[in-house]
């Protein structure tokens, strides 16, 4: 047995899963939330969407017994349920103000449209005593859990290099609401990497970011980004994110590279290759004195990580997990980092992220 075979890849499910009420029936619910809950045995009590016909179609596909005719009916669902609020950032506020006091909710990322809005949402959640987490599920993929475990154990030594590189085609047209946003790539895609990097390396001292559009997406504010994160003079961290590669999947790339003083890892984000069909995800690791090893993965981001982030929330509420990884205070810091990147993009300047003021958060 190699050093890497004992790394954590799977988040345990709650011993007594609670039923889930899903608010929203868009593509992410159909493509990830519901497949994840079905695979991992997390019961779904019902589904609500403004488009009731769409909700009924999705519910029928996944054998969800109840489609709520109104938001109030969904929020009044009987029993001790968990709310899965899977809505665009601009739609979160009106919903969170109506969630039952003392309830538990998983909230779609990003947490609001910017850090100021995120703080407002956090204050609402605190005032209503809602236990909440943000759906930053990238942290919960088998490959990312294994990498995090290896870093925590010191297997790679001091982390001196962290790089995210994408050259793939993201079908932005799948999400029509994106045309209404002032920024797209950083707050809706790169936010996952920023959240994970911040959780792994801490808040950077400074950031520089530049997002640009593309002729194939004239109605989008942007579709590609370059981000440099300053962690001092010993760690290089950068992200090169091209979502408009249209020259065939054979030349697409989606990788995260982690290098330390004692070892390294390469994570292949196969789910972004030839989207939506995808390619196999992969994890390769090496330490001093050994060769590269392919670590067999025990699952995939789609759908497994979506079940894992819900499991962490339910287990935390039940006292089975002592830490809620994507709790609201943690998510506020991610939103502050995103804000710094967006400010840098607007101004062309290097910006210093500020930690969130945690007094108003859960």
TrEMBL record:
Q: Which residues cross the membrane?
A: none
Alphabetical list of InterPro entries matching this protein: Gfo/Idh/MocA-like_OxRdtase_N, Gfo/Idh/MocA_Oxidoreductase, GFO_IDH_MocA-like_dom, NAD(P)-bd_dom_sf
**Pfam families according to UniProt:** GFO_IDH_MocA (PF01408), GFO_IDH_MocA_C3 (PF22725)
Domain (GFO/IDH/MocA-like oxidoreductase) spans 145-265
Domain Gfo/Idh/MocA-like oxidoreductase N-terminal positions? 19-131
Where would one find the signal peptide in this protein? none
Gene Ontology molecular-function annotations: nucleotide binding
Name used for this protein in its record: Gfo/Idh/MocA family oxidoreductase
Q: Which organism is it from?
A: Rhizobium setariae
Q: What is the lineage of its organism?
A: Bacteria, Pseudomonadati, Pseudomonadota, Alphaproteobacteria, Hyphomicrobiales
């Amino acid at each position: 047995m190699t050093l890497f075979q004992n790394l954590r890849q799977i988040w345990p499910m709650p011993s007594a899963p609670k039923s889930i009420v899903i608010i929203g029936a868009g593509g992410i619910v159909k493509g990830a939330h519901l497949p994840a809950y079905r695979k991992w045995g997390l019961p779904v009590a019902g589904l609500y969407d403004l488009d009731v016909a769409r909700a009924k179609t999705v519910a029928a596909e996944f054998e969800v017994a109840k489609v709520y005719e109104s938001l109030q009916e969904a929020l009044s669902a009987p029993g001790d349920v968990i709310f899965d609020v899977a809505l665009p950032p601009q739609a979160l506020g009106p919903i969170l103000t109506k969630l039952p006091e003392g309830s538990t909710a998983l909230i779609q990322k990003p947490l609001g449209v910017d850090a100021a809005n995120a703080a407002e949402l956090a204050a609402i959640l605190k005032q209503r005593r809602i236990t909440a987490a943000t759906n930053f599920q990238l942290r919960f993929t088998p490959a990312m859990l294994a990498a995090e475990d290896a870093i925590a154990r010191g297997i790679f030594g001091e982390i001196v290099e962290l790089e995210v590189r994408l050259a793939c085609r993201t079908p932005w047209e799948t999400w029509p609401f994106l045309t209404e946003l002032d920024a797209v790539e950083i707050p809706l895609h790169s936010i996952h990497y920023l959240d994970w990097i911040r959780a792994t390396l801490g808040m950077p001292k400074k950031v520089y970011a530049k997002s640009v559009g593309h002729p194939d997406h004239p109605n989008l504010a942007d579709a590609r980004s370059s981000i440099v994160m300053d962690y001092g003079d010993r760690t290089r961290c950068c992200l090169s994110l091209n979502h408009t590669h249209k020259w065939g999947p054979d030349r697409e790339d989606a990788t995260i590279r982690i290098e330390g003083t004692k070892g390294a890892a390469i994570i292949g984000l196969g789910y972004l290759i030839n989207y939506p069909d995808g390619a196999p995800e992969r994890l390769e690791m090496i330490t001093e004195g050994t060769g590269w090893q392919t670590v067999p993965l025990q699952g995939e981001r789609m759908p497994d990580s979506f079940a894992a982030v819900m499991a962490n929330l339910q287990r935390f509420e039940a006292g089975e997990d002592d830490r809620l990884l994507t709790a609201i205070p943690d998510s506020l810091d991610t939103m502050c980092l995103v804000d710094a990147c967006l400010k840098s993009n607007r101004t062309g300047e290097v910006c210093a992220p500020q930690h969130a003021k945690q007094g108003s958060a859960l």
